[in-house]
């Protein structure tokens, strides 16, 4: 409004954020992220490991059900895909035994299947390479196997 004056003795200053304010905010956010981040991501890793163990359990039971129905275990060439797709000339197949999206672990790598077993205490090997996506590993990167 024209002619309006500020009250005497009061001077309103508008001040924006300074570079120092910005740097302090970035530092505080960085410190919080370094403290909270590993805890959050650690929980994610443990959740992925638990999911892989549960899926391996379901897949192992599906392989056993395939064995009960068909009278044999899937071959290495058929792999776990035979749990979703009926093999040619196999009338005893009663699948699909699992959903197709269960054939890959939480890290996007197909679960590994070998028959006859070379490592497992079962008739077949069924495992995930784990978080590191390679054979072996320690800690959170250890391979996860059915039947262990």
Question: Summed up, what is this model?
Answer:
Helices cover 35% and strands 6% of the residues.
- Quick one: overall form? elongated
Average pLDDT, all residues: 84
Judged by helices, strands and strand pairing, the structural class is mainly alpha
CATH architecture: 2-Layer Sandwich
Span between termini:
80 Å
Instruction: Flag low-confidence runs.
Output: none
Number of domains: 1
* Beta-strand residue fraction: 5-15%
Task: Give the CATH class.
Answer: Alpha Beta
Strand arrangement across the biggest beta sheet: 1-2-3
Number of helices: 1
Q: What percentage of residues falls in helices of 4 or more residues?
A: 25-40%
The radius of gyration is 29 Å
Number of beta-strand segments: 3
Please give the largest β-sheet.
Answer: 3 strands, antiparallel
Q: Strand-and-helix sequence, N→C?
A: HEEE
For this structure, the CATH topology is Glycoprotein, Type 4 Pilin
At the fourth level of CATH, the homologous superfamily is Glycoprotein, Type 4 Pilin
